Amino acid sequence: MPIAVRVPNALQTATATLFGVVLAAGLVVMAAGCGSSELSFSEDPADYTDEVATLKQRLDEDPSDGKALRNLGRIYMQTGRENQAYDRLKRAYSHLPDDPETLFYLGMASESVGRENAALELFSQYDQVPESSRYRQLMEGRYEWLVRERAQKDIREMMTREADIADQQVSPRILAVLPLNYQGVSEEYEPLGRGLAEMLITDLANVSDLRVVERVRLQAILNELEFGQSEYVNQRSAPRVGRLLGAGRLAGGSYRVTQAEDIRMDMTVVELDSETSPDVPTQTGNLADLFALQKDLVLALIDALDVSLTSQERAAIAPVPTESLDAFLAFSNGLLEEDQGNFEAAVQHYRKATDIDPGFEAASQRAIKAESLSAAGGAPQKALSAAAAPTQAAARLLQQRLGHMGRGYLGINDLMDGDRRTPVEDVGGVPDTELPPPPNPPTRPQPR
Question: What domains are defined for the chain?
Answer without folding.
Answer: 9-150+381-431 (1.25.40.10), 167-320 (3.40.50.10070)
